[in-house]
Amino acid sequence: MYMYELFLSTDVEGKKIHFIQTNHKVDNLEKWLGKLVKDNTITEDVANAVTFVW
Predict the structure, then answer these.
(1) What is the C-alpha to C-alpha distance for residues 21 and 44, in angstroms, rounded to an integer?
(2) From the CB of residue 32, how many other CB atoms can be counted at a distance below 10 Å?
């Protein structure tokens, strides 16, 4: 089980940062991203661009 955090920035200088964190532990990053897309929190393009970093 992992706790995920997602940082989105609309410009190079780091302004307009959007921070999303799971409110519960999920075992599948794809499942969590799918839920964010379904809830219209992020777009499918953003979800597809997310890479897992260990």
Answers:
(1) 17
(2) 21
